[in-house]
Design brief:
This is Elmo domain-containing protein 3-like protein. InterPro entries: ELMO_dom (IPR006816), ELMO_domain-containing (IPR050868). It holds the Pfam family ELMO_CED12. With 255 residues, the chain is mainly alpha-helical. It has one domain (31-253). It is 51% helix and 0% strand. Helix 6 (151-163) packs across helix 7 (168-178), helix 6 (151-163) crosses helix 8 (187-203) and helix 8 (187-203) packs across helix 10 (217-238). It is globular. The two termini are 27 Å apart.
């Protein structure tokens, strides 16, 4: 198993300790209700991120002079994020820097919702820590230690994936392949890597043109996450990939 995890693309680790004790979980586990799309969507836009942060997102991809001229001729200035989207874009980026809080009931609800939606198992009194989390592709008994480089955004993206109408069935289909006896791979860890890929696309301006033609940064961000995971899934299924290939596949998607 250790060799399999070594093939996963490594991301910077964010401290998620929150100074809690595994034997002192403040949430009553048998009273958790599953989170809805509307609740999570509202939370994304209401979470306190510690003050204003309006630094503009720029298109920062490296390209030569001719490509810059061509880009300007084709897109005029549409590759720059429109001003009214800047705050929302930065909110998403800053959520990636927020840490999991074991005392936050919504964070716990997200974890339990992910587990139940993917596995179909609704277990009253399911423990916050335990090997059951490995069933959905976390590395160990505490899922929060796997939110690498994407913080709470990784948790929220995976939750959106399993609860969004018309998309949740796709998440189940992809998860089922991750549990295949031959083609198995760590679903949750792969999700964190895909969130990191799309986050970089937001940061470097690759999503700007799509966002500018939409109503919401979050909607486009989620759509690209779903699409990227589907692309990964199709490669994995069509090419009969195994756990030994996962590092190469993810690295290829980051290019």
């Amino acid at each position: 198993m250790s060799n399999e995890w070594d093939d996963i693309v490594c991301l910077p680790i964010i401290d998620i300790s929150n100074n809690y004790n595994k034997n002192d979980v403040s949430i009553e586990q048998d009273s958790i209700d599953f989170i809805t799309y509307q609740q999570l969507h509202s939370h994304v836009f209401s979470i306190d991120l510690g003050g204003p942060h309006d630094q503009k997102i720029h298109f920062e991809k490296k390209c030569n002079f001719l490509m810059k001229i061509l880009r300007y001729m084709l897109f005029w200035k549409t590759y720059e994020l429109k001003p009214h989207f800047v705050a929302e874009g930065n909110r998403i980026i800053r959520i990636a820097g927020q840490t999991f809080d074991n005392r936050n009931k919504l964070h716990i609800r997200c974890l339990y919702t992910i587990f139940a939606k993917l596995t179909g198992n609704v277990v009253l009194g399911m423990k916050r820590f335990g090997q059951h989390w490995e069933e959905i592709g976390f590395q160990g008994s505490d899922p929060s230690t796997d939110f690498r480089g994407v913080g709470l955004l990784g948790l929220f993206q995976l939750t959106f994936f399993v609860i969004t109408p018309k998309i949740c069935q796709l998440s189940k289909e992809i998860y089922d392949l991750s549990m295949d006896q031959v083609q198995h791979y760590p679903f949750a860890i792969t999700s964190m890597n895909i969130t990191q890929i799309v986050l970089q696309m937001l940061r470097d301006g690759s999503l700007n043109c799509f966002i500018n033609r939409s109503d919401s940064v979050l909607i486009i961000f989620n759509q690209f996450y779903y699409g990227t995971f589907l692309y990964f899934h199709k490669i994995w299924k069509k090419d009969k990939k195994t756990i030994m290939d996962i590092g190469y596949v993810l690295k290829g998607m980051k290019r």
